[in-house]
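[Solved] Which block belongs to which protein?

Original post:
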Amino acid sequence: MKINGIEVELTVETSWEWCLRMWDDVDERLSFNRYYSVEIAKFEFCEEKGITDLSHDCFFCEYAGQGQFIDPVLCDSKCPGALAANYKYKENNKVLWCCQKGKNFADNPHEFNLYLKELNERRKNG
């Protein structure tokens, strides 16, 4: 991932910070325009922040793979969101934690944003 052309390596904390910032922004953009798509909102957020080369347009994917493609099976042990949710890919019909029914980031972005905040609180409070 690059910010303003400079290569950046994320930590768990910075991946959470960026993820929460992006999803607040996406949620706000979509609340003003129901015809907006999650993909466009994420793209515009990244463009405005000078962020390029972000794996799967996701800060957690970026952290888990550090710029490389990550096999979904590895999400259980590397994705900060999956770890916070204690979510197991193989035990859930090979559905990624961010694509769960009712909490799917693309279909329910507002609910997904709330879920992220809940997971972050759980994570911080142990």
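(Second protein starts here: sequence line, then its structure tokens.)
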Amino acid sequence: MKTDKIAWSQDAEVELLRAYDGNADFLRPVELLVRAGLAALYQVETEEGRIGFFVLREDSPEVEVIAAAGDCGGNFIAEILPEIEQAARNAGAVGMKISTFRPGLMRWLERAGYTGLHITFWKRVANGV
């Protein structure tokens, strides 16, 4: 498996939008963070081709996975998590945060050694909504 830091791309945007049910309100701030250099977009590939993307906010001493998407024909998070953890180590992190609203992923992360810290809520506040 090969993981590279890349610039924001249309391919990444399409894949991330698909994973987040087309929620552009969620993805736009992620894109802005990457473009501003406050987060890093990574592409993960195997010999067969690209399997996904993830975005890390690299705030030492910990990083935060703020988006991830892809398809490897199996359990995506199981395949890509070691790559994300290696990218975190390469960024000098001693810890890593992952936020999710998916109960199945929460249970999977707990079995992988992660500890639930809190639940985060989000609401659109722009344009008086």
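Accepted answer:
You had them paired correctly. Confirming on the second one: The helical segments are 10-19, 24-35, 76-90, 103-111.
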